[in-house]
Every structure is written in C-alpha cells, then in structure tokens.
Amino acid sequence: MRIVFAALLGAVALTLSQPAAASRLDESEAAVSATIDRLGIDRSRIKSVFLAADNHPQNGPVPSYTGWVAFTDCRGNLVVDLTSTAAIRSLYTTGECRVPGVESY
C-alpha cells in the first residue's frame, strides 16, 4: 500500500510540474521573440529558433532556457541565454553572424 501511495504522489507531482515547465518555456519563447524585435532583426533573416533547457545549478530546480537563432544569411547564431524567470543572462552571436549592438564570439 505504501508503494502504491508513493507512486501516486509521484505521478501527481509530475503532472503538476509539467504545466509550470510549459509556462517557463512559453515565457522563454516570448523573451527570445521580444529580444529579436528589440534588436530590430528582420524576421526574413531568421531560418529557425530553437530553445533548449539548461542546467544552471544556481537557479535550483526551475528550468532556464537558451535560445539559438539561426540565420539564412550567415553561419552561426544569435544566442539568448535566459534565467529561470526568462530574463536575459547573456546575449551574443557566434560564427559569422553579426547583430548591431551585440557582442560576437
């Protein structure tokens, strides 16, 4: 009986945490989109946007994300590293890609 109860509690906890994770992802997607707009990047330059969950120990169990923006006109990315509250931790470009006002590595 204890095993069944523990399994049930685990399933409930997992179910309750999934909407929070989805909400964090939605907030992160909105933050990357707002960053693209704020930087004045022409959306026709964008080939794809990919968000990946990070494991930053200082943020605890709440997921943070990094957005990778790939362009059609250069090899590299705009990287938008976000905190667990979807605030920008760091912003830079890689490879051949350049965005005015953004550091390049």
Secondary structure layout plus pairing:
Elements: H1 2-38, E1 46-54, E2 64-71, E3 77-82, E4 88-93
Antiparallel strand pairs: 1-2, 2-3, 3-4
Which features does this protein show?
1 helix, four-stranded antiparallel sheet, globular, alpha+beta, Nuclear Transport Factor 2, Chain: A, 105 residues, 35% helix
Spatial sequence of strands, sheet with the most strands: 1-2-3-4
Residues in helices, as a percent range: 25-40%
Query: At CATH's second level, what is the architecture?
Result: Roll
State the total count of DSSP E strands. 4
Structural class: alpha+beta
Order of helices and strands: HEEEE
Domain tally: 1
**The CATH topology:** Nuclear Transport Factor 2, Chain: A
CATH class: Alpha Beta
Q: If you average the pLDDT, what whole number results? A: 82
Distance between the termini: 57 Å
Q: Can you tell me the overall shape?
A: globular
- Our Rg estimate from Cα atoms comes to 18 Å
Number of helices: 1
Largest sheet, described in full? 4 strands, antiparallel
Poorly predicted segments: 1-17
Structure notes:
The protein is α+β, with helices and mostly antiparallel strands and 105 residues long. The protein has one domain: Nuclear Transport Factor 2, Chain: A, CATH 3.10.450. The chain is 35% helix and 28% strand. It has one helix at residues 2-38, and strands spanning 46-54, 64-71, 77-82, 88-93. The chain is globular. It starts with a helix and ends in a 12-residue tail after the last strand.
